[in-house]
Amino acid sequence: MIKINSITSRSASFEIINNNPYYSGEEYEIYLNGEYIRKETKNSFTINKLENEREYLIQLKKNNLNIMEMKFRTEKELLTLDVKKFGAVGNGQKNDTLAIQTAIMACPKYGRVYIPTGIYKVSTLFLKDDITIEISKNAVLKGINIINEHAVLPGIIDSNDDTEEYNYGTWEGNPLSCYTALITGINVKNVKIIGEGIIDGNADFEIWWKDAKKKKELAWRPRLVFLNNCENIIIENVTLKNSPSWTLHPYFSNNLKFLNLKVMNPNNSPNTDGIDPESCENVEIIGIDFSVGDDCIAIKSGKIYMGRKYKKPSQNLIIRNCEMKYGHGAVVVGSEMAGGVKDVFIEKCIFYQTDRGIRMKTRRGRGKDAVIDNIVANNIKMIEVETPFTINPFYYCDPDGKTPYVWERKELPIDEGTPAIKNIKYTNIKGSGMKIAAGHIFGLPESPIEKLILENIEIEAVEENVEKAEPEMFSFAEKVSKEGFVLGNIKKLKIKNVKVKGILSEEIQLTNIETIEKED
Amino acid sequence: MKNIESYIEEALLGPMACSRDLICDKNCLMLGAINIYKVIGNAKYKNLIAKYVDVKINEKNKCGLDYNYGKVLIFLYDEFKSEKYKKSLEEVYSNLIVELNKVDIKDSLIEKIKKLYTVESFFVEYETRFNGKAGYKDSIKRFRKVRDEIIEQKETIYKDKIIDFYIMALIETLEKMSEEIFEYYRELQLMLKEAIKIKYSYKIKKTEMECYFLLKGIRLGYLDEKYFENSKKIVEGVITDKNREPNCDLIMVYSEYLYL
Which of A39, A285, A324, A445 has the fewest Cβ atoms nearer than 10 Å? Predict the structure, then answer.
C-alpha cells in the first residue's frame, strides 16, 4: 500500500505502508508514467520536477514486477517567478535578500517563486500567503553571518490601550526578542516550500554558536525557519543545515506538514534542535532524516507565561518514518510545556546514538495547564541510545531550576505551579547498545503519572563496561550504568512482555506505584 | 546645574561627617555617579567611588551599609573583580535576609512601600547575579502584597507622594531582573503600567524625580512614550538652569538626562 502525503504543483510526497521503521527493508524502483525515475530504500519519499496540473501514474517495482501503483494529479500553477529575473545573482557573494524578497512579494496566488542553481546570500526572507517557493537542486540559500544584518522580532508589544499584547519574538519558551530567521513567516497561510535545494544558516562558533547562553547584542539567537501564527504550511524535501539555534520552529501555528527533509547541524552545535513545534496543532513530521546538536524533535508549549496566558497546547502530532541521529534526545516533550502537550503519535522511527530516546522534561512551576497526555510510541528501533526512556519532573535546566522547590523528592502541596502527566503508552520497541538505563520514569509524588503502559519492549545493554552517568538532569542524580527500568510515582502501571538484557541491576525497580498489572 | 564632577568629588571625599543622612545621600550619590560613568565612560567617576568605598572597607566602617551601598558594591565588583567588594556585598546581603525574615505585621502601607523601594532592587540584583534567581518568587510576593493594599486604598494613596516610591521600586527592580523568568518580569511590568495609569489619571504636577523615573522607564521599554515629551522638558529645564545647586536627587536626574 502507498499513500500520498502532499501534492504541490511541482512535487508529490508518498509513504509506503508497512511495518518497517524508516527503511522499507528492500530496494525498489520508482516509475512515473512508465518512465524509470530512481531506486529508493526509504518508506517516505518525494518526487520533484513534475509538471503542473498533470495526471501521473506512479509505480513501485521490484525486479520489474509491479508491487504498488497509484494515480495522482499535480496542482494548478499560474506562473513562475525566477528570482534571477528579479536581480538575484546567486554567486555566493552578493546579498540577494532584496531580489528574492521582491519576487516573493510580487508572487500572486497560485504562483511559484523559483530559485535556480546558485548560492544566494540571504539575511532574512519573509513569507507571504498563497505561494510556493521552490529551491531547486544545487540551489543554496546561505545565511549572512552578521548579527546586525538581521532585524529584531520584539517579544511583546502592548496595544496602545494596554488591553492586548502582540508577541513577535520568542526564546526558549518566553516571549523575548529574537533575531529574524533566514525564513520567517508571521501570520501567513497556504505556503509551500519545496525542492531539493538547501537552506544553510551558515552558523558557526565565531558568531551564533559562541557564548550560547548569552543574548546577542539586541536579541536572542534566530532560528533557521520560524513560523509564528501560520496556517497550512508544507515544507518538503529541502535540506536545512547549520542553524543558529532551533532549526525549524513553528510557533502558535496549525496544519503543518514537514515531509522528507534533511535536518543537519554539527553534533556539538549548541541548542540546534531539529523541529520544535511550540503550541501547534495538527503537525505531521514524516520521513525526516535528522542529525543535530541537541534534540531531534522537541515538542513545547511555552515556559510559564505563554502557557498560562494562552493555554494553547501542542496537540495532534504525528511523527512517522523518521531517522534521528546523534544529539541529546530523539523525541522530547518539554521542558517548556506550560500550555500542555497531548495526542502525540510516534511510529516507525529509528533512533541512533542519541543520549535519550523518548524523553519528557517538566518541573514544578510549569503550572496546572502543563499537562502531558496521550503520548503514544509504537514500532521504534533504538540503536546505541544511552537511555531509551525517561520522564523527569525534576528538570533543573532553568535559571531557577536548582532550587528546593524543583528538586524536592518528597511530596509537596499541590499549588498553581504543579504540572501533570497522564497517559503514556510505549509498545513494540527494540533497543540495542543501551549504556546508562533502560528507562528512568517518574511522576511527581504529589502529581503521579496517571497511567503508563510498557508492552513488547526489549532493551539490550552493551557488552563492554561503560562509564557511569546520570540517567536524567535533576539535582543530586546518582550516576549509573547498564541499569534496568526505574519507575516511580505512578498510579496505574501496566507491564507486558518487557525484557532488559545484559544489565547490572534488577530488570525493573518500582517505588510508589498504586496499582500494577504485569504479564510476561 | 553647577559643576557636577566637583560636587561628587567633594561629597564623597570631602570632610563630611558620618551622619546617617549624609551617608544615605552618599550611597544615592554614588548610584548617580555610576549612571553617569555608564553613559559617558569617564573613569574618574568609577575611581572616585572606589576610593571612597575602599576607605570604608579598610576602616571597617559599618556606617551606611544600606542596600544602595550593596548596589554600589556590585558595580565595583564588576569593574574591578576584587574579592573585597564581594565580601562586603555578602555582608550587606546577609543583613538583608535577616531583616526580611523579621515579620513585622505592624508595618503601615507607607512603611511597606518604602521598604520595597529600599530593598527589592538590590535583593533582585543579588539574586540575578549570585543566587540563581531563586529569590524572585519572594520578591514578587512582597510586591503583590503591597500592590493589593494600594489598590484597596486607591483614592487616598494615589494622591499621596508615597506612591512615587512604589513606582520607583518597580522600575529599579525591573531593571535588575532577568527577563528570562518572564512571568515575574511581566508581572512587575504590568504592576508598573497599572500604577502609572492610575497615578496620572489624578493629574498631579510632575516633580523632577518623577520625570527621572518616567524617562528611565521609557528608556528601558517599560512605559509608553506618551510621558516622554513633558518629562524631557521638565528635566531639561532643571539641568540647564545654571543656578541650581546639585544634590543627590539631581545627580540621578542628570544621569538620565545624559541619555536624551
Answer: A39
DSSP code of residue B249: H
Spatial strand order in the sheet of A44-47: A2-7, A12-16, A44-47
Nearest Cα residue in chain A from B225: A160
Q: Confidence class of residue A343 from pLDDT cuts 50, 70 and 90?
A: very high
Mean pLDDT of A493-506: 96
Catalytic residue among A328, A373, A398, A440: A328
Residue with C-alpha cell 528492500?
A26
How far apart, in whole angstroms, are the C-alpha atoms of residue A79 and residue A193? 16
Whether A249 is a known active-site residue: answer: no
Q: CB-based contact (8 Å) between B247 and chain A?
A: no
Q: Copy the grid coordinates of residue B21.
A: 543622612
The Cα B56–Cα B66 span in angstroms is 13
Chain segment A315-342, per-residue pLDDT in tens: 999 999 999 999 899 999 999 999 999 9
* All residues at 6 or more sequence positions from B97 whose CB lies less than 8 Å from its CB, including other chains: none
H or E stretch at A460: strand A449-461
Taking only the tens place, the pLDDT of each residue in A29-80 is 999 999 999 999 999 999 999 999 999 999 999 988 999 999 999 999 999 9
Dihedral sign, Cα of residue A394, residue A397, residue A402, residue A403: negative
| Stronger pLDDT, B205 or A50, i.e. the higher one | A50
Q: Has A294 been annotated as catalytic?
A: yes
Put simply, the answer to whether A403 touches B134 (Cβ < 8 Å) is yes
Q: How far is CA A503 from CA A383, A433, A471, A520, in A?
A: 16, 11, 14, 18
Q: Do B186 and A305 touch (CB under 8 A)?
A: yes
How far A357 CA sits from the closest chain B CA (Å)? 28
Interface test with B, best of A304, A309, A400 (most B CBs within 10 A): A400
Q: Are A169 and A176 in contact (CB under 8 A)?
A: yes
Residue of chain A whose alpha carbon sits nearest to that of B178: A399
B182 to chain A, closest Cα gap in Å: 6
The pLDDT, as a whole number, for residue B90 is 93
What the block records as the C-alpha cell of A378 is 509504537
B132/A399 CB distance under 8 A? yes
Residue A162 and residue B197: Cβ atoms within 8 Å? yes
Is B182's CB within 8 Å of A175's CB? Answer: yes
Of A303, A399, A405, the CB nearest to B178: A399
What is the spatial distance between Cα A229 and Cα A366, in angstroms, rounded to a whole number?
23
The CA R_g of chain A, rounded to the nearest whole Å, is 23
Quote helix, strand, coil % in chain B, to nearest 5. Answer: 75, 0, 25
Mutate to test the interface with A, among B186, B188, B194, B225 (most CBs of A within 10 A): B186
Q: What average pLDDT does this structure show over A98-121?
A: 98
Test A403 with B136 for CB contact under 8 angstroms.
no
Give the number of other Cβ atoms within 10 Å of residue B242's Cβ.
7
Cβ–Cβ below 8 Å for B132 and A403: yes
Q: CA-CA distance, A273 to A514, in Å (whole number)?
A: 36
User: How confident is residue B254, by pLDDT bands cut at 50, 70 and 90?
Assistant: confident
β-strands A314-320, A341-352 pairing = parallel
State residue B19's pLDDT score. 47
Q: What is the pLDDT of residue B161?
A: 76
First-residue to last-residue Cα distance in chain B: 16
pLDDT in tens, A125-145: 999 999 999 999 999 999 999
One-letter amino acid for residue B163 of the chain? I
Half-sphere exposure of residue A308: CA atoms within 13 angstroms, side-chain side = 18
The DSSP symbol for A74 reads P
Residue B103: the pLDDT is: 64
Q: Which chain A residues touch B134 with a CB distance below 8 Å?
A: 400, 402-403
pLDDT at B60: 72
- Per-residue CA distances from A473 to A103, A246, A329, A470 (Å): 47, 20, 12, 7
